[in-house]
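Escalation from tier 1.

The customer reports that the assembly of two entities below gives different structure tokens on two consecutive runs. Tier 1 could not reproduce it. I'm attaching the input and our single run for tier 2 to review.
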Amino acid sequence: MRRWNGWGDEGFNLAMPEQGQDFLASRIGSGRPLADATLDSVCAKVPETRLTRPADLVSLIDTGPEARVRHARGQSLADWLAMRSGEFGVFPDGVAYPTTSEEVQTLLSWAAEQHIHLIPYGGGTSVAGHINPVDKGQPVLTVDMSRMNRLIDLDTDSQIATFGAGTPGPLVESQLRAHGYTLGHFPQSFELSTVGGWVASRSSGQQSLRYGRIEQLFAGGRVETLQGTLNLPTIPASSAGPDIREMILGSEGRIGLITEVKVRVTPLPEHESFHVVFFPDWESARTASRLLVQTRTQLSMLRLSNAVETETQLALAGHPRLIGMLERFLSLRGAGEGKCMMTFGITGSRLQTRNALKEARSICKAQNGVYTGTRLGDKWAAKRFTMPYLREALWQMGYAVDTLETATDWDNVDNLLGLIETSLRDGLKDQNENTHVFTHLSHFYSQGCSIYTTYVFRVGDSYEETLARWQTLKTSTSELIVNNRGTISHQHGVGKDHAPYLPVEKGELGMLAIRSLCSTFDPDAILNPETLVK
Amino acid sequence: MRRWNGWGDEGFNLAMPEQGQDFLASRIGSGRPLADATLDSVCAKVPETRLTRPADLVSLIDTGPEARVRHARGQSLADWLAMRSGEFGVFPDGVAYPTTSEEVQTLLSWAAEQHIHLIPYGGGTSVAGHINPVDKGQPVLTVDMSRMNRLIDLDTDSQIATFGAGTPGPLVESQLRAHGYTLGHFPQSFELSTVGGWVASRSSGQQSLRYGRIEQLFAGGRVETLQGTLNLPTIPASSAGPDIREMILGSEGRIGLITEVKVRVTPLPEHESFHVVFFPDWESARTASRLLVQTRTQLSMLRLSNAVETETQLALAGHPRLIGMLERFLSLRGAGEGKCMMTFGITGSRLQTRNALKEARSICKAQNGVYTGTRLGDKWAAKRFTMPYLREALWQMGYAVDTLETATDWDNVDNLLGLIETSLRDGLKDQNENTHVFTHLSHFYSQGCSIYTTYVFRVGDSYEETLARWQTLKTSTSELIVNNRGTISHQHGVGKDHAPYLPVEKGELGMLAIRSLCSTFDPDAILNPETLVK
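Tier 1 run:
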């Protein structure tokens, strides 16, 4: 059963090894956990629905309290605190479960007539407030796409698969795998997030180096709007004017509800493996990662942890004896204190992967990288989707954890990374609290890369105090990112949390273009209000 | 000196070998050339300008007849017939030559105030009527960007170069080459077309398989609009809402005038070579080309001629003795009558290109391809930008030549190719005229490819008759393309000629989105009227 107040499956818990606890305590002190609200107590708070369902929609829409609780919040830290405290604020007035595009169009017509706000809901994994209802004085209906979760068509000539927009990652891959194909889109939210959500929020997966971002995978599909059905035909490439697909990508429910998604798929690879290299310092590690991508070495995945993340990962890994041996070995090879861990994946035919490995090792070696083989890479692959469960483990220990991510050009990577880490590390100093901050680079481009920073701090004595701590860190660092050539989000989208920072990034005229698009399709602003643009 | 009434440099002429003439005569009969108008006679027809230049713009704007003649038409076949007959129709009222973004903004303000139509002009190489003035009862000012032709900045860390939008292909490459870099964007119009024009019309180069289309190369820049300056910051990738760059790409002067373009560049490669393989038949050749791209073999360029194009190219190549020897050799290896020629390029490090060649040869061999080495590939590379000069040579012989191009998914390639060729081949049958038609595939994607069809027909007894022949062929085939899952253009853009077919491709709601964008930035519709959307 899915957790109603946190990440993932109730049956799965990530254990924190003892030395991991000691490590955190030494950095930011011991935590004191806050008490959790119960599902029953929250359901009791859900107000009467404001929706009056017409007869033909009764079976489609659930207005019961539990469904409304389970669809009220995503997975941002603010959402987490709301769910654990039981202080949800606004609930949707009902949850619809359409099974066809036609039913979605029916819901749209009804919403337009009644001025009901519609919120499209995929996996509910947003960490930026995309799916949270806001109180605008009108009823809110959340449209859960989970019943549209099938592989509708697979064209093996053109390598295009058509999915219902509510298909979550595991069902995307298992349905394709049955035919010998993969989409290759593996965001960390893979377990729950959906193909429609990936398109609506411009998602990027861990192996985007091979398969591309969702922008490259999204070939077309169907969007139900208040103006009618928008069909996006599949065409490999076109010079015929502005690309409508690119207006739907990142539209976050403001233009319409995506119901069918056509994606570019690939035959399952002959070979895939993940490898780990340690570098003596950040400078050499960053240079190697930049050269790997700028030389077009055929990697499928690349991730570079800075020294603190490397240290933290080794401390939290457990197995202190094995890790100790590894560290002595690395130290002898020149990668001691301050070492940085790189993980890379190679995927493809035997010939391609053999050559890619050769190229990659040669570039790393030239930067004094110490290659350690696939053992740690296999560990990364085995745990690649479990990191969100860490929040639960830390929460039980009295810690809050969140991440911030951006992307910027290579000439600005070190500068922006430094600014972000300093802002987070010092953000709670006036409260005499330390923050444990570490970063990796991932999603590499010849032009630059994404910067993904994790920060851990102790919860306060109350939920209010904890939320205030988070707001302090999130706000100041977000401002800093957009004022220093970073995007407000490389892979999490805008939602409501990032909307205040979007105008700096897009500029006045960029915002004008986006607003004009939204109001062309939704003149009365009933779709997902306050998301993307206020 | 640039030809005023045709393609390229006056000093360069492509000779048609005798057997090429015989070949065409045997296919469609001998031609009877039409008489050309002189530049003087056309200049004499240019009406008085309707522009009253304010003092500060006098030196910026040329209202003399020759400049106005030279900027009145592009390079479509209809433009060609207008230029050769001297029947231009509408001329712009003047030509501005701004040197800075600020001057462009001054021109925009003046145009808005006086309701003057502005047409941005790059290399004047449009084959779809992008830069042709139309008579809307108001003066027309063509804005020639050729004085903004410099490399403004090169960031070698992030591999981003900033160019003035009017920089033509050779100046892009020579200025980058001086620093050891290349953009790698080589459309057939490379000699004259500009980086701003590439962005405005979503251009694609011959080596897009390595370097990407202009969509992938365009990192940001500056656009002057009637609402002010739109700055597009460089960010490697972002999930922050719809991508504004993608709205400028393909905007064809309807949103604003692009003045600066930031592009992603690459260090000059260690190795580059072009190779030719012949296949016994179309089926095996098409399969090989699909597999080459779907296996992600690191090619930089791929082109596959069908049997008639292969035959035509060999006939027009001259050197009948050498070609005869080649054909006997190929025939012995199984590639006789009906053979298809594939050219592929490999570019990159020695290791990468060695491996790519190995992979490519193995895939081709499995489809019975006969590899012939680099000799014919070198010929292709040497002549890669000279094909547009062929129109001049054919014109002198009384033939008109034009091309049609589209892109579609693999499952539809053979169907659409067949429809296009049949439509063109039979299009003049009721006039008892034959059309010589041949096709190649180029610009390959895992999902599909572009289809590029050339057609040659005899000019009529008059310009009117010749234009009518072209219109018959162009109209019916364009309709057929958009009604059969093809894009109205993979690489030439929409302009005025393709605008009638765009609504079928984009759909009613796609057109609504594009129109709303245009009118947001240009509510009085003074920019490049009737281009892109009517």
